[in-house]
Design a protein that fits this description.
globular, seven-stranded mixed beta sheet, Aspartate Aminotransferase, domain 2, 16 helices, four-stranded mixed beta sheet, 13% strand
Length: 461
């Protein structure tokens, strides 16, 4: 946090700079505009996923190499987006490219097990100290299957999640994800609200949300559910929230959740789709030394290819082992993805890589913190491993309610535009953060800090 009282940023100045930067970005991307006009005739909204949308048009990328990407207008940018955190390896890493090329020549799909799938599972077992594993093709599939396993294991239907968290786009977890005003709502009475249309209300009501960093509220809500005959099958959560910027667990919180769920016979699922491989070799499970019953992985696992996994204890996975739960998928353990994952784990995301990522993040956090202090900006820099962000809030963000009440959406949007126009490719939206890669170096993170300093100077001039 800043060491002096934050300055009052002129809102008109934010709007003035935003208008200017919007014009600049639009002027720099005429080919993206043309591509959008072409794409919207076939792709809904001109994109492959709603999270790729941008008004007035998305920025279409052409290629990436190491820590850099190029859009179709030829604009070169340092990549701090990295596929929503899925490419901690950087782009076109030679080890992964070699593995994929070899595998492509030997066949890319069998719907049958391969040695690479076994080797990857052995490495996941070692890193997470969970004995049994299965594969999926995405984080959404991983959390969907993990919840099904928990329900089969316990014979219960209700699930508990953290309000404001995102666990993929299947019905059970597209609930109480965001865009809801919870001001004044007691923490153990947060509503179950579908995130977008098309969700059956009966499914929505099976998911109950509680605040992050508040084990007492979680226990009170579970008590009430049990009194209603709805003891939950599972608690699914990120050990550190990664879709509201970054919100770390407060001391003792994860240990309290682990003790509560174990005592009440509730399966604890850590969604490590974002934290896995980015904040430590064994993700949040290693970083915070709290072991769940089930863990879900994706994003950075596949080294740029679509891949996901579920790990669990022998007890949790017995319902898959005995055939009670059909955990299936034609492309599960796809040979191409497994070859990439094996090279990723054995040759790229090594102990030296994590030393490098930790050091870079310390450097970028220190640089951004200096900028915040020098200009008395209302905010703070926070990060873990390869992940970090500047949170534009004068108050610490500890859960969804404090995020909704305090985080400055206008200032965050301006920072994104400002970065994009100065060669820093970032994830849009106030919920997102940077992801570093093994290809980033001191010069890359110093460039990020320099751009942030230039923005701060313009804001406070």
């Amino acid at each position: 946090m800043a060491t002096q009282a934050p300055a009052q940023i002129d809102r008109e100045r934010i709007r003035e700079l935003t208008d200017r930067e919007e014009r600049r970005l639009n002027e720099r991307t005429p080919k993206s505009r043309a591509m959008y006009e072409r794409a919207r005739t076939t792709l809904v909204g001109g994109v492959a996923s709603s999270y790729q949308l941008r008004d007035p048009w998305p920025i279409y990328l052409e290629r990436g190499d190491g820590a850099r990407v190029w859009d179709i207008d030829g604009n070169e940018m340092l990549d701090f987006h990295n596929g929503f955190g899925s490419t901690t390896q950087g782009h076109a890493h030679p080890a992964i490219s070699r593995a994929v090329e070899r595998r492509a020549r030997a066949g890319t799909q069998f719907a049958a097990p391969t040695e690479d799938a076994v080797t990857v599972a052995e490495e996941l077992q070692r890193r997470w100290e969970l004995p049994k594993w299965r594969y999926t093709n995405s984080g959404t599939e991983a959390t969907m299957d993990a919840i099904r396993v928990a329900r089969a294991l316990t014979g219960r239907d209700t699930i508990v999640k953290i309000f404001g968290s995102y666990h993929g786009h299947h019905d059970a977890v597209m609930v109480s994800t965001g865009s809801v005003d919870v001001a004044g709502v007691p923490p153990d009475e947060l509503p179950s609200v579908g995130y977008g249309a098309g969700l059956p209300q009966a499914i929505v009501e099976l998911t109950v949300a509680v605040p992050f960093n508040d084990v007492a509220s979680m226990e009170r809500r579970i008590d009430r559910l049990e009194s209603e005959g709805r003891l939950p099958a599972c608690v699914i959560m990120e050990a550190a929230m990664m879709n509201l910027g970054i919100i770390p667990p407060e001391p003792g919180y994860l240990e309290g959740v682990r003790e509560l769920t174990r005592r009440r016979g509730i399966v604890l699922i850590f969604d490590e789709v974002k934290t896995g491989f980015t904040i430590a070799a064994g993700g949040a499970t290693e970083r915070f030394a709290v072991r769940p019953d089930l863990v879900t992985l994706a994003k950075s696992l596949g080294g740029g290819l679509p891949s996901g996994a579920i790990g669990g204890t022998d007890e949790a996975m017995r319902v898959v082992e005995d055939g009670s739960v059909y955990q299936v998928g034609t492309f599960n353990g796809n040979p191409l993805s497994m070859a990439a994952a094996r090279a990723n784990l054995e040759e790229v995301l090594t102990p030296a890589a994590y030393e490098h990522l930790d050091r870079l993040n310390e450097r970028i956090l220190a640089g951004c913190s200096r900028v915040i202090d020098d200009h008395a900006l209302p905010g703070y820099a926070i990060g873990i491993g390869a992940k970090g962000c500047v949170t534009f809030s004068a108050e610490p963000i500890v859960d969804y309610a404090t995020f909704k009440a305090n985080q400055d959406a206008e200032l965050t949007h301006l920072a994104w535009l400002y970065s994009m126009n100065r060669g820093i490719f970032m994830t849009p939206g106030r919920e997102e953060e940077w992801t570093l890669t093994v290809a980033h170096d001191d010069a890359a993170v110093d460039k990020y800090t320099a751009v942030f300093a230039e923005l701060a100077a313009e804001l406070t001039a």
